[in-house]
């Protein structure tokens, strides 16, 4: 019987997930829009193997991705690759369900959190996930029920930590207050959209959470749906993802969209001066922020993933001088909250 492949972090960097003791690779791999959908089993294995061999230990999925097929594909690939479970950090998310019409088939009721996670574990062929996240807030369920339910799945060994995704700072603080009052386990990080064009929530709204709770972030859409790669500078290619999303493609022709394309052109010049691409610059910019725990990469081809992983090598070149040039181009840094009168 052959032994499991040994995890070699290479030159990967690791950060704590929020104020927890869990260490995640600053670049992680996610299956949204690809695994269980456009990728077959062989391609899925190739992507996960490449990520693992480059020191990525963190893999992200959700019950809703491809109606549960993403979890199936990821779990089967990990099983086929024979990785040690202890080498991996697996994140899944609960809220949207898998398409069931059952009134309890989605949301954050105790019933769906417990049963939804059980179903995710079955699809993943795993006994536990490292982190389970509330994929969105559920205003129809009392916060104390949500906190108690996540505390329960941790205490029963189905997850090690829990977190949030696109929750408001008020909702996260409410969860922490309830956890503190009842002696329960609080959430450790939020999975939020963050990129050069989408900064308000991660940089401004969440700022008090970083200071008060050491809250972490796992970042999705670091390339702004591909806009920051520069591939849409001359329009939307017929074979691109945006070609099938007319509303998103329409945004590129809006005044804001045109302004952003012009910014990408200027960012490309900065990238060229660093002997890199706008894609790698955008990913490294995200990963360089101290409030970011990990940046989730998505890819359909191994060569695309290998290219994106080069963002790790660019981090040391993102000096204060380079960052100042980037900020001059972006001109969208959120203003700090006023402390007047406090």
What does the model show?
It comes from Tilletia caries. Keywords: NADP, Oxidoreductase. Belongs to the shaker potassium channel beta subunit family. The protein has 342 residues and is α/β, with parallel strands linked by helices. It has a single domain (14-227, 277-318), classed as Alpha-Beta Barrel (TIM Barrel). Helices cover 41% and strands 13% of the residues. It contains 13 helices and ten strands. The chain has helices at 41-53, 69-81, 110-124, 143-155, 169-182, 200-205, 207-213, 246-252, 255-273, 278-287, 302-308, 311-314, 320-330, and strands at residues 14-16, 23-25, 27-30, 58-60, 89-94, 129-134, 159-165, 189-193, 216-220, 294-297. The strands form two sheets. It has an eight-stranded parallel barrel with strand order 3-4-5-6-7-8-9-10. It has a two-stranded antiparallel ribbon with strand order 1-2. Helix 5 (169-182) links the parallel strand 7 and strand 8. Helix 9 (255-273) packs antiparallel against helix 13 (320-330). The longest helix is centred in the C-terminal third of the chain and has 19 residues, at 255-273. It is globular and about 50 Å long.
Task: Give me a quick take on this structure.
By secondary structure, the chain is α/β, with parallel strands linked by helices.
In percent, how much strand structure appears in the residues?
A: 5-15%
Largest sheet, if any?
A: 8 strands, parallel, barrel
CATH fold group: TIM Barrel
Mean pLDDT figure: 93
Distance between the termini: 65 Å
CATH class: Alpha Beta
What CATH architecture do you see? Alpha-Beta Barrel
Number of domains: 1
